[in-house]
Amino acid sequence: MTQVTVMTRQGCSACVKAEQDVARICGELGVEWSTADVDSDSEWRAEYGDRVPVILIDGVEHGYWKVEEDRFRKALVSAGKR
């Protein structure tokens, strides 16, 4: 099953918007999603900290700073076919 993770941080308004977009799209497509705070792990902070929000699909970076809806939907549909 496909899993989406939104790498976020507290006080990030772009993260809130990305979470809303991901919740809506994943809800429509029946895809599970979660969030993870980049500041809770030093490796995450080093990897993603300057680009939050970062969207991961099945642990692979899909995009950052905002959700590109058409591209995101296509990636989720493709991931579901694997």
TrEMBL record:
InterPro entries, A to Z: Glutaredoxin-like, Thioredoxin-like_sf
Extract the Gene3D superfamilies matched here: Glutaredoxin (3.40.30.10)
Mention any Pfam family matching this sequence: Glrx-like
- At the top level, the lineage of the source is Bacteria
Recorded protein name is: Glutaredoxin family protein
